[in-house]
Structures are given as structure tokens and as C-alpha cells.
Design the sequence.
């Protein structure tokens, strides 16, 4: 719809600028456009669209604020829950834990009698 409107507007501008009739024809077109814009049905629709847009935009900041507030509260509660078990047990274990409160995975120890070595393409060929 926007493309059609721009096309029509461009056509009108081109016609006005290229018209042989000159200023007289331009004044006729400008008067017709002004009459159309100031018509009661058009202004009624303009007011409806403006009111709708203001109502829609007016609710958005409140909704975004509430959603952000809820997300922050949830993260704070999750952080507090993750910190609470560590304080209760008094554990000062050197193991690390991931952000979600579960222990981080560790690399399994090598089997007895075998040195730990990184596997690479040469190991896969055997």
C-alpha cells in the first residue's frame, strides 16, 4: 500500500512540475488536495487513526516495564535460590558450578596405566 501511495504521489508531482499549464493548473491541484484533506470524512478517519496509535503506544511502555520487572525478579529469585544451598552446607568445595546451579561437567580421569593424551586425527586412524 505504501508503494502505491508513493507511486501516485510521484506521478502527481511529476505532472505538476511538467505541466504546460503552469501555475494555474498547480493552483487547481493544490486546492483540490486541500479540499480533500480538510473534508469531514477524511479528518474523522485521521482522528480515529491518531487516537488508536496513541492508545496502542500508550500501553506499550507499561507492558515493557512490567515484563522487565518480572524478568529481573525471576533472575534475582533464581540467584538467591542458587546461593542458599551453598550457605546452608558451609561447603567451600573448589569445584566450579555453571550459571544454572548444577555442577560443571569435568573431564574424566584417564584409565590407570595409560597417560592422558589429547585425541586427534592421528589417533582415529589406528
Sequence:
Amino acid at each position: 500500500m505504501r508503494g502505491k501511495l508513493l507511486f501516485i504521489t510521484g506521478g502527481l508531482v511529476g505532472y505538476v512540475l511538467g505541466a504546460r499549464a503552469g501555475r494555474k493548473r498547480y493552483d487547481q491541484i493544490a486546492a483540490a488536495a486541500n479540499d480533500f484533506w480538510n473534508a469531514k470524512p477524511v479528518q474523522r478517519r485521521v482522528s480515529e487513526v491518531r487516537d488508536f496509535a496513541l492508545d496502542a503506544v500508550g500501553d506499550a511502555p507499561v507492558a515493557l516495564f512490567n515484563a522487565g520487572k518480572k524478568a529481573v525478579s525471576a533472575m534475582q529469585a533464581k540467584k538467591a535460590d542458587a546461593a542458599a544451598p551453598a550457605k546452608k552446607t558451609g561447603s567451600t568445595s573448589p569445584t566450579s558450578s555453571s550459571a544454572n546451579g548444577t555442577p560443571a561437567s569435568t573431564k574424566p580421569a584417564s584409565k590407570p596405566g595409560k597417560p592422558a593424551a589429547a585425541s586427534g586425527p592421528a589417533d582415529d586412524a589406528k
